[in-house]
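Quick log. Single chain, no ligands specified.
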Amino acid sequence: MKKSFTGMVLVLALSLILTACGPQKATLNVTATDKGYDSISYTVPAGAEVTLNMTNNGAVEHEYAILKLGQHVTPPFGDKDEDKIFWELDGVDVGETKSDTFTAPTEPGEYDVICGIPGHIELGMIAKLIVK
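-> predicted structure:
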């Protein structure tokens, strides 16, 4: 009986350790309007599996594009800026909520977030993704 109990404790401890070592998960709930996002910054753990749920309460289509660390866009956003994008959720139609998942950067820092639809950065559709 003692061996059986010790074995069960060992299996339980190993399960807890392996679960703790698994990837972190995070969820970002973002609301977009025609004047910007609902926050100026969003924070996620480095390397986490992030689910982004974006609701568009504006009158036109919007997107959520995360730029690579150290990259910035000088308006207007265009083809010259496409290679600066780390990840994006695009095509969120009016009144729609769209979700997708990405792996957060492993390097901590502040990453620019923009709406890459022409003219939207100028309207204030910018934010920061803070990776810790």
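The chain has one domain: 23-131.
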